[in-house]
Amino acid sequence: MVESLQIRRLEESLERLRAEMVQSVNGESSRLGESHVLPLSQQLDLLIMEYYKSTIMKSDPLYVWNEEMEKLIP
Questions:
Q1: Distance (Å, rounded) from C-alpha 36 to C-alpha 23?
Q2: Sign of dihedral through CA atoms 8, 14, 16, 19?
Q3: Can you give the residue ranges of every domain in the chain?
Q4: Which of 13, 21, 53, 65 fits 40 for a cystine, CB–CB 3.0-4.6 Å?
């Protein structure tokens, strides 16, 4: 139950940050390379990794978590 709540919060955070990033470029994907988007993109990357670690990795017995990847997640 606690785990599913954590996953739900991650999903909400991902969607909120994705929407913020889209809004920051007025929906124009050609502007995603602008410097003000980089911090949002980096935050989104970290959330995606956390989500992946909390969901897909736990269901894949063949996946081995690399310690270097662990350093990327705050």
A1: 12
A2: negative
A3: 2-70
A4: 21
